[in-house]
Automatic annotation (TrEMBL):
<dbReference type="InterPro" id="IPR020843">
    <property type="entry name" value="ER"/>
</dbReference>
<dbReference type="GO" id="GO:0016651">
    <property type="term" value="F:oxidoreductase activity, acting on NAD(P)H"/>
</dbReference>
<keyword id="KW-0560">Oxidoreductase</keyword>
<dbReference type="GO" id="GO:0070402">
    <property type="term" value="F:NADPH binding"/>
</dbReference>
<dbReference type="InterPro" id="IPR011032">
    <property type="entry name" value="GroES-like_sf"/>
</dbReference>
<feature type="domain" description="Enoyl reductase (ER)">
    <location>
        <begin position="9"/>
        <end position="297"/>
    </location>
</feature>
<dbReference type="InterPro" id="IPR013154">
    <property type="entry name" value="ADH-like_N"/>
</dbReference>
<protein>
    <submittedName>
        <fullName>NADPH:quinone reductase</fullName>
    </submittedName>
</protein>
<keyword id="KW-0521">NADP</keyword>
<dbReference type="InterPro" id="IPR036291">
    <property type="entry name" value="NAD(P)-bd_dom_sf"/>
</dbReference>
<dbReference type="Pfam" id="PF08240">
    <property type="entry name" value="ADH_N"/>
</dbReference>
<dbReference type="InterPro" id="IPR013149">
    <property type="entry name" value="ADH-like_C"/>
</dbReference>
<dbReference type="Pfam" id="PF00107">
    <property type="entry name" value="ADH_zinc_N"/>
</dbReference>
Length: 299
């Protein structure tokens, strides 16, 4: 089969077909999405023939041998820490969800890491109805899902973006306030979904109300976070930062997000879409912050 590999750039190569374990379904990939983390933090020592990629959607061509999961011919969205950027993918049946016929597999492929991360991080914040919640990096993949899901949960969402151009469309997704960097934010916050790290995480922490929480999700700024815990008058009495990591299996959360997508209650926010032979173009655009939301490649 053909697959995208780093060799050393991102290009198509022929690699062996995946061999599924008894609990894995074999999926013919129709589309996959790119995530900032899987490109920006790629190891320089990737082994030859390794197929990267976390998110993919397609059609089951071979059901799992143990009887779990959907039958052959079922449209699915899938997650795994590798193997998505290929014509075929073997995926554990606990890490997939069925995609209704009316849902485009391209937007479905955008859901796994970005959508589930936003969903789980928001869940960790606890009840947010009527409370003020900040999303940093709101124009990115995780950020645009987080704005929508927090608004659906009743939060008063403050969306922080890097520029007015990057902030376009965030009010339509449910943001009640938009700021260009949290240093320009006034007032206190109950919760923060931080996708940026660095000084933005510090600025968000200083604005927490008592018992407020920062979910440290991502490090898009690629800079260290320095916090002055003794800075007078700017921090809450008991605010905290929690290191957030998404947890598996994804199946149930993917099914929930697919349901919202199918009902028109969630927008996958595809900012770039094209054939997979343009993968380097998509990756460069994502790293350069020229993509609002998700980049999707059709196989």
């Amino acid at each position: 089969m053909r697959a995208l590999t780093f060799n050393p750039g991102l290009s198509l190569h022929v690699v062996p077909d995946p061999v599924p374990t008894p609990s894995e379904a074999l999926v013919q990939v129709a589309a996959f999405s790119l995530n900032f983390g899987e490109i920006a933090y790629t190891s320089a020592n990737v082994r030859a023939g390794h197929v990267p990629g976390w998110d993919a959607a397609g059609v089951v061509v071979q059901a799992a041998a143990d009887g779990s999961g959907p039958a052959a011919g079922t449209r699915v969205v899938t997650f795994g820490w590798s193997g998505a950027w290929a014509e075929m993918r073997a995926v554990d049946t606990a890490e997939l969800a069925v995609v209704p016929a009316a849902v485009d597999l391209g937007p479905a492929s955008a859901l796994p890491v970005a959508g589930v991360t936003a969903l789980q991080a928001l869940r960790r914040l606890g009840p947010v109805a009527g409370r003020r919640a900040l999303v940093t990096g709101a124009s990115g993949g995780v950020g645009r899902f987080a704005v929508q899901l927090a608004a659906r949960a009743g939060a008063r969402v403050v969306a922080s973006a890097g520029s007015p151009a990057r902030a376009q469309g965030l009010r339509e997704l449910g943001a009640t306030e938009i700021v260009i960097g949290p240093e320009n934010l006034e007032g206190r916050l109950y919760g923060v979904l931080d996708n940026v790290g660095g000084h933005q995480l510090a600025q968000a922490f200083y604005r927490l109300e008592d018992d407020g929480v920062v979910m440290a999700i991502g490090r898009a700024a690629r800079e260290a976070t320095v916090i002055d815990f003794e800075l007078a008058g700017t921090r809450s009495a008991r605010g905290r930062i929690e290191n957030f990591n998404v947890t598996t299996p994804f199946g149930a959360d993917l099914a929930h997000l697919i349901g919202l997508l199918a009902a028109g209650e969630l927008d996958a926010q595809i900012g770039w879409r094209g054939p997979w032979n343009r993968a380097m173009e998509a990756a460069d655009a994502l790293l350069a912050r020229r993509v609002a939301g998700k980049a999707v490649l059709d196989v």
